[in-house]
Amino acid sequence: MPAQGNYIKRNNLLQISALELDTFLVFMESEYQFKLKWYNSASAERRLRKTIKNLQLNSLSQLQASLQSGTISFQRFLSEFTVNVTQVFREPESLKDLKNNVLPFFRKELDIKVLLVGSSSGAELATLCIILKENGLLERSKILATDISENILREAYKPKIQKSELIEGHENYLIAGGYRELDHYFLSAGAQAYLDESLLEKVEFKTFDICHSELEDRFDLVICKNVLIYFQYDEQHHLINNLSRHMKDKSFLALGEKESILRLQKLNDVFSLVSGNFNIYRKN
Ligand SMILES: C[S@@+](CC[C@H](N)C(=O)[O-])C[C@H]1O[C@@H](n2cnc3c(N)ncnc32)[C@H](O)[C@@H]1O
Q1: Class of the CATH domain delimited by 92-283
Q2: Cα(84) to centroid of ligand 1, in Å?
Q3: What SS3 class is residue 16?
Q4: What is the CATH number of domain 9-81?
């Protein structure tokens, strides 16, 4: 492959020059208000390389040109760039903690508003609906399931998992405090299983970028798991501040098991710790 602009290919690894990257970061923000510059640079560069390869392009400059000309849409770019790995009843110990230390606060609430951020293809939404159902809260809840990627969020409209995932999922479901068979909530269709649609009656969907605070509502519980890990540590307080604008006083924030915000001192006055091991916080 010949060298092209700032682009060179060494050892089969597509190289991205500093200039090319800086230009792309500015373009992303000015054109789409997408704060790519806040993402962890090592993982963002890996994802950009993968995106360029999957879209059968040769360089980051070519990707930018394709976006500018409309040959590739921003949403198509996001489908490639974002990491959408998810799993039903992922991080079950932390779900158990949520069930034991947060849900009891909602026992007398008539209108429980839950925001799911970075919900990906729907396994986490299915998990949440099942937990709320088993704790007698689903009928009184309104869930807003969001993701920055429209395409992945569309998959969450009808959450489905591979039947093989039900086996591990069931083990995690029991650890999280489930008390029946997980497949009770799924309808089998060939090698796949779809979440029982009656569990989704209280769910709405919306694209939402955690880098901005653009939602009108305020929530009692915000779940944002395995999203912060893709961002630079120094920028995470912006993201948490954005989320906190959508939280009622005394509401709860559940993050992923690797996403402690305890070291973000700017947030010490905003949140109190509910569960140190599992990164559950309460807004002061
Ligand atoms: C690894 S998945 C986590 C899915 C799910 N929360 C879980 O823990 O299984 C990360 C999700 O975050 C979404 N995401 C990435 N950047 C985002 C942003 N700026 N705002 C909102 N969601 C974002 C991705 O599209 C992806 O679906």
Answers
A1: alpha beta
A2: 6
A3: coil
A4: 1.10.155
